[in-house]
Every structure is written in structure tokens, then in C-alpha cells.
């Protein structure tokens, strides 16, 4: 049995135990975290996620030059001797579409591997508890599943939508309350200590260390275990919304949540429910972003969620005039794809055509796959827009490669790259 199979077999047993006994606290888990096959599987998954180097500058290539087995053996020894200490998290800033930046925390590779091992061990326990309405960063669930549920709720007549946004959620999760929630299921003090150390790890921000032991809020957005911890904390919120005979259920309100992005949907959302919502979030020490949170009547105006636009449109193809729920890539999502293509072509002026085709395919394939939820989304128009943009940008790209127009420009760069070098034509690419 390979490493992955052994890990999955153990996860199934944990999940079944947690599902059968809702109040059971798991107390012998640390010894699993330091098992060689768990750490090998963790290394494999961390490497597949790629990611930049942390504060020590070490990359996966550096690890393999050093010796992967030796590197993992040293981790086992540190965990066995309980001498492991996480290094500071490197803070980087990612540009957002609105011109602002999103802070990401990048742990060093060693910390990522141990976080992944802990995640592999404890995730099945909490998966047994999580609500069906939660979709983000969970096994065998995706943004497409959340989009499908929203469309279904709209078709059921739940067309009043509270489009919510939490203010800096990952940065404001209170450590004390989070650890208490983790402790409801995990009683292994060594695992809890690891999680606490990661929460308290200092942050290297522009060469200056901040945070540390005195820090009482936040989990780095970018850490391997952070999405699971974020879901554990918001699970209490999910339960409150879905509670039978609770305020929300009495009003027929349903929630669809993807990490810290969520919507409430009902035929009508009364102010009393929103007041209760604010009090609930206040008790959890969280806050709504008032500027971005709003109620939308989807029958009259569109709304965006997870990069998709939901809109009631006229069906122009049928004989009878009727309406249908159109779900397509949002304008902002289309702009992001074009921005990536433009940036790539701006800084890669001397690559062979095959490399250009391969690199552009990496951008377009992921984008198209994300928006190709079968039977739910209609990305045809957005695909045509992307094809038109690619065609124009490639023509200008090859025109400026030299003072004289190059052969690819004269021949029609887009079609040549498609026919000879395998460039994806967005209008003809099937999901896969």
C-alpha cells in the first residue's frame, strides 16, 4: 500500500469515528503527524501546490539537492524530540482588482510540510461535523458546487440575496475562541501546541518582524492549515444559520458559504434577521464590511459571487418568451484573465512560439475550467471575448518583436499558434 492509500485509509477511519460519535475528543494524533509516510505524502502535496520560498529562501529544488529523505528525517527527529519551532511567516502583498492589495503569509517549506501533515490528520474529524452549506477548501467540493446551489435556490424562488463580505476575516479570527473550538474535538495537547505556535508565529513584513506571542488575532492567509482553521471557526456561524427553529430557518433563509465569502438567500430577508446576523457576528468578534455587504433583489438586478455573475435574462432562442437564470464569468473575472495575458506578453518578448503557446495555455485552461460547471454556467460569450482579445494581443505582440513584421504576424499569429503549436482556442476548448 502506497503512502497516499495509507493516509486515506487512516482518514476514513477517523471520519467514521467522528461521524458516529459527535462529542468524541481525539487524543492520540501527534504520533501520526510524525510518521514517515504522512510526511512523505505531505511533502508531495506541498510540492504540487508550488508556492514561493519563505523567509529562509529555500525552494523545493534546494530541498531535493540537499536530499528529500534527509530533510524529512530531520523533521521526524524534531517532532519526536519536540524541538520543532516554526520560522517567521513571510508577508507578501498581492494586487487586487480594485487597486488595493491582499496580504499573504508564506511559511517556509518545513513549516508547510508539518502543517500539511497536521491537516491530513485532523481534517477528517472536522469534515464529519461541517455543514452541507459550506464549500470552500473542502475535499471533493468546489466553487462550482457552490455556484450550482445558488442557481438552484434562485430557481426555487429565493431571489432576495444578502451578498455579504467580512472585514479582513483571516486577520481577525480570535485565537482563544478558535483554539477552544479545535479543542472540542482534539484533546491531544501536542497537536494543539503546534497549532498555537503557528498562530503565534511572527511575520516578516518588509524586513521587519511583527506579531509573535503577544498576537491574539488572525491566521496567515497563505498558510497550509489556515483554510481549515478558518472553516472551523465559521462552522459555528453555519450552525447558527442552519439551526432548525432558529431565526434564519423561520424566515426560510439559506446560506451558501465558500470560505469567508457567503450569501444568504430567501424569498424575503427581514430586517430582524439582519439585526440578528450582526449580533451573531459581534458575539464571534467578527464584523461585516458595510460598504460591500448589501441586499439584492435578483429578479431586478444582477449580483456577483465567486467570480460569477448571476442574472435573470430573456431566452431569445425559444419561440415562447421566457426568462432563465444566466450564470457567466463576471466582468472583473474576464478582466483578470486579460490582465494576466497582457502581463505575460509584455515581459516575454523572445520566447519560442511553442513556449508562448504552452504558457498562455496555462492561463486560459485554468480560467476556462473554473467557469465550466456543466449545466450551470454559460461561458460562451466570455470565451468569444477571450478569443478576440488573444487574437489582437498576439498580433500586436509579434508585430513589435522587431522593426520589420515577423512571419508569425504576417501569417496570423493566433491561428498559427493554434494549428501548429497547440494554443487553446477558448471557443473550442472543452472542460478538462
Provide the helix percentage: 40-55%
Shape: globular
| Structure class | alpha+beta
On the 0-100 scale, what is the average pLDDT? 91
- Topology as a string of helices (H) and strands (E): HHHHHEEHHEHHHEEHHEEHEEEEHHHHH
Tell me the Rg in angstroms: 24 Å
Which regions are unreliable across 5 or more consecutive residues at pLDDT < 50? Answer: none
Number of helices: 18
Major beta sheet summary: 4 strands, mixed
Strand order of the largest sheet: 2-1-4-5
What portion of the residues fall into strands of 2 or more residues? 5-15%
First CA to last CA: what distance? 29 Å
Using DSSP, what is the number of strands?
Answer: 11
Query: How would you classify the quaternary structure?
Result: single chain
Textual characterization of the structure:
The protein is an alpha+beta fold and 432 residues long. It has 18 helices and 11 strands. The strands form 3 sheets. Strands 2-1-4-5 form a 4-stranded mixed β-sheet, with no helix packed on it. It has a 4-stranded antiparallel β-sheet with strand order 6-7-3-8, with helices on both faces. A 3-stranded antiparallel β-sheet has the order 9-10-11, sandwiched between helices. A hairpin with a 2-residue loop joins strand 4 and strand 5 (208-210). The model has no long low-confidence stretch (mean pLDDT 91).
